[in-house]
């Protein structure tokens, strides 16, 4: 079933007669609906699809960026100035699903985004099961114009920055600068001399490559360095905590 038909059912109400003989408008209990609160629909009311109420939103959700799909039915706001990271993915799945030479994705927390119409007008595709159910991780699109919006993972979202207002400004280019190329051997375009690290697969979990795709660091060393960096960051954090305590 397509999500578009889901959406239609969401607003369907039937007129039934209650005990007093007066008609009451109740949605079908067995259908997907905003108002029936079936446990399997709970995700529609959680981040990233939870709709913020206006008063709370203005203080807790300072809008840094706005984005929308091609037809404008899907609109969102972002409260984080820069993504946690931005990456290019050259895998063949991304090439096919985006109809583009590669995917440009910016990682955000699910709480960083606010879809102004919640889950409405969105469609889902689970590339693993090849199904349209909301099963994580999945692709998220506008259900009407089919603009790809983001990949929704279990904890994070990978947002496609080309939908963002002002993304072609120097500030936005800097904020959303990609820090690596992933699945570089599957590429259909070369990136020679761009100074951005290249990986055979996922960043930090596969061989590191040069611009021509030759291995320059084996996966094992890449993973060791990743762990060393993590440990160092942890130590730094501990030291900072200590310093903060002394400051009291
Ligand atoms: Zn659209
Ligand atoms: Zn990919």
Automatic annotation (TrEMBL):
Q: Where is the composition biased (Acidic residues)?
A: 204-213
Point to the regions of Basic and acidic residues compositional bias.
222-248
PANTHER family per record: CENP-V_GFA DOMAIN-CONTAINING PROTEIN-RELATED, GFA DOMAIN-CONTAINING PROTEIN
Q: Does the keyword Metal-binding apply?
A: yes
SUPFAM superfamilies to which the protein is assigned, alphabetical = Mss4-like
Region Disordered: start-end pairs: 1-40, 203-248
* InterPro entries linked to this entry: CENP-V/GFA, Mss4-like_sf
Q: Which residues form the CENP-V/GFA domain?
A: 65-177
List UniProt keywords, sorted A-Z: Lyase, Metal-binding, Zinc
Family statement: Belongs to the Gfa family.
Q: What is this protein called?
A: Mss4-like protein
Pfam family of the protein (one): GFA
């Amino acid at each position: 079933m397509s999500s578009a038909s889901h959406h239609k059912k969401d607003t369907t109400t039937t007129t039934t007669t209650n005990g007093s003989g007066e008609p009451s408008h109740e949605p079908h209990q067995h259908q997907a609906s905003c108002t029936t609160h079936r446990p399997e629909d709970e995700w529609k009311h959680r981040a990233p699809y939870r709709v913020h109420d206006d008063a709370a939103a203005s203080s807790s959700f300072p809008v840094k960026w706005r984005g929308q799909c091609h037809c404008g039915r899907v609109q969102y706001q972002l409260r984080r100035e820069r993504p946690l990271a931005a990456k290019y993915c050259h895998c063949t799945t991304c090439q096919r699903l985006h109809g583009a030479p590669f995917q440009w994705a910016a990682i955000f927390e699910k709480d960083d985004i606010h879809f102004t119409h919640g889950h409405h007008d969105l469609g889902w595709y689970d590339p693993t099961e090849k199904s349209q159910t909301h099963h994580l991780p999945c692709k998220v699109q506008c259900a009407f114009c089919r603009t790809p919006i983001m990949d929704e993972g279990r904890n994070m979202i990978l947002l496609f920055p080309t939908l963002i207002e002002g993304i072609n400004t120097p500030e936005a280019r800097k904020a959303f600068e990609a820090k690596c190329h992933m699945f570089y051997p599957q590429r259909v375009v070369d990136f020679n001399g761009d100074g951005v690290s290249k990986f055979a697969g996922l960043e930090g979990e596969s061989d590191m490559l040069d611009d021509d795709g030759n291995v320059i660091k084996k996966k094992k060393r890449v993973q060791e360095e990743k762990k060393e960096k993590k440990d160092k960051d942890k130590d730094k954090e501990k030291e900072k905590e200590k310093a903060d305590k002394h400051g009291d």
